[in-house]
Write a structure and sequence with these properties.
binds guanine; Urease, subunit C, domain 1; nine-stranded parallel β-sheet; 17 helices; 17 strands; TIM Barrel; alpha/beta; binds fe (iii) ion; four-stranded mixed β-sheet; globular; 432 residues
């Protein structure tokens, strides 16, 4: 086995600062060393402590003027919407009909799907995102193309075929039975292949019949180690529509609960308009939310209540939600998350921000045993942030008096230019 090592300022999160306090929540070595073998972390610590543990001839890569952090984790994104990012002027339901559905139609063509998947994965890596929970389209081929490209790059990625059998154009609809069969076949083909994992993916309650949600629940019961990925309570018109479509359910979350779709590895995007019962049920069912601030602002959906998630101990990851979201960068997503919290009269601290982008995302995906930090044995997915990315960032960094201020500056000023290099399973997959 070949050992490689990376020297530079090294930082990772150990826990949620809201739970254990800031001091106990992270580790930082100003002159650190990250030791990697066979795609896994062997050790992380001070250079002076670890140098003597390296075998003779081990290659050390130096990363001056940087900050080495765990790879970012995007817990909600749509790869087929790459080409319609930032489409003008509509809120959710009109935006879906005007821009999203026509764009997703093209993914019936596998060659188109592969081409977009390549651009999408390049964009993720360029932005330091090494793991994402990804929507495909209704077409099974869209998922095959995505997974083929992700497998080739040896990335830890989660994806699923959209299930939708009503309230959408005919050309994008499957049926309860075909969606079950197609999802099952994809799950059995891809879940656990390389680092890939499958998500059962009903689009959202309004585009599935009760029969389809029941079929999704059956599949989830048959494969409890797979994911469930959907949308929840994003927009007020959507919430009113769900109430009309499922009058027998107590609230929006209860629709998914009724069909057995909640639990560990269930990730629901948004959750903007939730009642107390829904917060309690998210906690008791051990489900997770994806906080998607750029999307929630762009589509005018509302302001996510991160402090409620903390109060109810609900797991939260960060999502870009491209193409409703406006950036692939989780740094830019943190920038908007900070402003959302400011509008709610709350402060999102720099450590909480980096927790959400790394270990918090890993926990939301139940992957913190292998992702989200530099503990020995975890997978070696990491990012080299560049303190000299631009003259402005360099100047701002020189003015910072603490690690917290540096982290904050990265989250406010940083974007893809701040990512000097990205490593997946120990291998460099992007270099500026
Ligand atoms: N709700 C249902 N489908 C979608 C989608 O594609 N994007 C977003 N943001 N919300 C949705
Ligand atoms: Fe979405």
């Amino acid at each position: 086995s070949s050992i490689s090592a990376h020297r530079g300022p090294l930082f990772h999160m150990l826990a949620d600062p809201a739970e254990v306090g800031e001091e106990a929540s992270y580790q930082y070595w100003e002159d650190g060393l990250l030791v990697v073998a066979d795609g896994k972390i062997i050790a992380a610590g001070a250079y002076s402590d670890l140098l003597s543990t390296l075998p003779d001839g081990a290659v050390i890569e130096n990363h001056p003027d940087s900050l080495i952090v765990p790879g970012f984790i995007d817990t909600h994104i749509h790869y087929p919407q790459t080409e319609m990012i930032g489409a003008f002027g509509k809120q959710l339901l009109e935006w879906l009909n005007t821009y999203t559905f026509p764009t997703e139609r093209d993914f019936q063509d596998p060659q188109h799907a592969r081409r977009v998947a390549r651009v999408f994965l390049d964009e993720l890596l360029k932005n330091g995102t090494t793991t994402a929970l990804v929507f495909g389209t209704v077409h099974p081929e869209s998922v095959d193309m995505f997974f083929e490209e992700a497998l080739e790059r040896n990335l830890r990625m989660i994806c699923g075929k959209v299930m939708m059998d009503r309230n959408a154009p005919d050309y994008l609809c499957d049926t309860a039975e075909s969606s079950y069969q197609d999802s099952k076949a994809l799950l059995e083909k891809w879940h656990g292949k390389g680092r890939l994992l499958y998500a059962v993916t009903p689009r959202f309650a309004p585009t599935s019949t009760p029969e389809q949600l029941a079929a999704a629940g059956r599949l989830r019961q048959e494969h409890p180690d797979a994911y469930m990925h959907t949308h929840l309570s994003e927009n007020l018109a959507e919430c009113a529509w769900v109430k009309e479509l499922f009058p027998q359910c107590a609230n929006y979350l209860d629709v998914y609960d009724h069909y057995g779709l909640l639990g560990k590895r269930a990730v629901l995007a948004h959750g903007i308009h939730l009642c107390e019962d829904e917060w309690k049920r998210l906690h008791s069912s051990d489900s997770a939310l994806a906080f998607c601030p750029t999307s929630n602002l762009f589509l005018g959906s509302g302001l996510f209540a991160l402090e409620e998630a903390e109060r109810h101990k609900v797991k939260v990851g960060l999502g870009t939600d491209v193409g409703g979201g406006t950036s692939f960068s989780l740094l830019q997503t943190l920038n908007e998350a900070y402003k959302v919290m400011q509008l709610r009269g709350q402060a999102l601290t720099p450590f909480k921000s980096f927790y959400l982008a790394t270990l918090g995302g890993a926990r939301a995906l139940e992957l913190d045993h292998c992702l989200g930090g530099f503990t020995a044995g975890k997978e070696a997915d990491f990012v080299v942030l560049d303190k000299r990315a631009t003259p402005l960032l360099q100047l701002r960094m020189e003015n910072c008096r603490s690690l917290a201020e540096q982290l904050f500056a990265f989250s406010i000023l940083g974007d893809d230019r701040a990512i000097r290099a990205t490593y997946a399973a120990g291998r460099c997959v992007h270099k500026k």
